[in-house]
Amino acid sequence: MSVNDEPLLHAQDLVRRYAVRRGMFGRPAEVRAVDGVSLTLRRGQTLGLVGESGCGKSTTGRMVLGLEMPDSGGVAFRNERMPPPGTPEWRRLRARMAMVYQDPLGALDRRLDIGVQVAEPLEIHGIGTRADRPARVEALLRSVGLRPDQARSFPHELSGGQRQRAVLARALATAPDLLVCDEPISALDVSIQAQVMNLLSEVQARTGVAMLFISHDLRAVRQMSHRVAVMYLGRVVEEGEPDDVLRAPAHPYAQALVSAIPHPGRRGGRIVLKGDPPNPAARPTGCAFHPRCAVAAAVCARDVPALKPRAADRRLVACHVAQGEAAPGAGLPRHALEAA
Amino acid sequence: MLRFLGLRLARALLTMVLVVTFAFVVLRLSGDPALLIMSADAPPEAIAAFRQAWGLNDPIWQQYIRYFAAIFRGDLGQSMRDGRPAIELVAERIPATLALTLPALAMKLGIGIPAGIHAALHRNSFADRAVMLLAVAGFTVPSFVLGLLLVLVFAVQLGWLPSGGQESWRHAVLPVLTLGIGGAAVLARFTRSAMLEVLGQPYMRTALAKGVPWARAVRRHALPNAAIPTVTIVGFMVGSLLAGAVVVESVFSWPGVGRLLVVAVANRDLAVVQCILLLVAATMVSANLAVDLLYGVLDPRLRSAPREATA
After folding, report:
1. Do the interacting molecules here have an ipTM over 0.90?
2. Which terminus of chain A has fewer Cβ atoms in its 10 Å neighbourhood, N or C?
3. Do A111 and B225 touch (CB under 8 A)?
C-alpha cells in the first residue's frame, strides 16, 4: 500500500449523545444524535453524506473536524488521535482542516471586508509575512474566481455565489488537507449551485484536498462524491460507490430517498414513506427504520442490523432484508410493535 | 453617506416641529391659562388685562404662528408666573439635573455593559443567572419605588445618607443610585442578548473552527458586532439626560429640570413647559442623530447602501 492510499482521516464508531429535557420539569431524556458512525476519508476524494434533517449529518461533520468530542469512538487524522478542543495541538490542526457552511452571509463578519477575513487564518496560524499577505489574499481570491479588487468589498456587496466563493477562499487560505462542506449549496440559487460545485471539484483536482460533502441533495452528492454514505437516525445504513448506491440502492430507506429525486417524464414509482418522521429521542427498537419500512420483517423490530458487506456485491448495507437474512415482510403496523 | 445624513437631518427637524406643535396644542386646549394663573375669583378686569397682555384673545392660529416665529428668533417667551425669560429659568436648572444624570449614565455604562458581556460569555453559569435575576428585578421595579426603598434603608434605617435636598454631594448619592440601577439593568439585559445573538452566528463558529483563539474571536468579531444594537439603547439613555430624572427629582426633592417641569405643568406656565419640551426633544433628537452617524461607522452596510447586492 503506497502512502497515498492510507486514509487521511478515519472515524471509528462515533457516538454523540445529548441530554434533552421536555418542558421545565420533564425528565431528562437522552438523544443519540450520532450512534456508531464510522467513516474513512482519503486524499483527493470526496465522501458524500446524505440523509434527512436531524439524522446526525452535521454532528458527524463537527466530530470529524474535532469541533465536538464524541462520547465514544474516536477520530484519527493522519494516523494521529484528534487532540481535545482548545489545546495547542488542536489549534494547530485547525490549519489542516476547514469547514464551509450553508449560509455564506452568516459565515462572514458583515463589518469586515473580504480581504481581511480571508487573511485572518493566515494571521492566526502565522503563515507568510505581513508584507506578502496581500499577494496571498489576491491569489486566493483569484483561485476561487473572484477579482482581487473584491478584497475591499463587504459581504453585503457580493452576490450569494460570490460570498460562498469568498468563504471558500478563506477556508483554503491555510491549504488544508480536509474540507467539510455542510450543505454548501442549499442556500444558493440553482444556477449558482452548479458553479459552486464545479469550483469545489476544480479546487479538489488542483489541491488534492479531501472533502466530506454533507447534503440532502442527492444529485449534488452524486456529482461531487467518490463514495456515498446514507444516514438514518444517527447511523450509516448504506455506503458505496455513488453510481451503485444512488442508481440501485439496497437499503429500503435509501430506495425511498432515491425514488424521491424528481425525473422528467417519469410518473409514479415513488416510494412514499408512511409513519412519523424519526424522533431521535424515541428511537425505535431493532432497526430504527422498521416502523416506516415497507418490507420490514419480525426480526427488524428486534435486532439492530449491522453495517456489513453484502455477499452479492460487497456493498455495505445495514438491513436484514437486503442482506438476505430475513424474507421481506409486509412492513410492521404500529399496533403489532406495541404488542411485541 | 451625504444623502443618508441629509435624510436624517430633515427627519430630526420635522420631529422638532411636531414636538413644538404638540406642546402648543395640548397645553392651549387643556384649560384657560388666565383662569388658572389668576384664580377664578380674580376681578374680571384683571383677567381681561392678563389675556390682553399675553395675547390670549387672538385666534389660536395667530398665537401659534406668533409662537413659532418667536422660536425662530430664539425667543422662547416669558414665564407667566414671574415674567422672567423661560429659557433662563430652565437653564439655571440644567446643571442640577446633569449632576444626577451624568454620574447615573456613567454607572449604567460601567456596570450594565460589562455585566451583560460577562453574562453572555458565561451563559447559564451562576454569574449569568445572578446578573439576569438582578437585571429583571432592577428594571421591573419602578424608579419611585426603588427610590423610596433606598430612602427607607439608607436614610431612615441606617441614617447614612440624606433623604432629599441638594446641599452636598451626599444628597446626590441616592438619586444617582436610583437612576443608575434601573438603567444598568436594562443595559445588561440588552448587551447580553446582543452578545448571545452574535456568539451564535456562523462566522463565530467558523472563526473558532479556523483556530482563532476564543479571546481574539470575542474581541474582533463578537464585541464590535454586538455593539451595533447596543449603541441604540445607549443613545436613548444619552438622549434622556435632561428628561430622564423627572420622577427621581420629585422623589428626592432635587431642584432640577424635571421638578421645574412638574411645577410648570401644574401651574400652566406655558412658556416654561414649552421651553423644557423643546430642550428635551432637542437632546433626544441630537442623540438619535449621533446614533445614526455611529451606525454608519460600525456597520458598513449603511455606509454604502446604494451598492447593495440582491442575489
Report:
1. no
2. N
3. yes
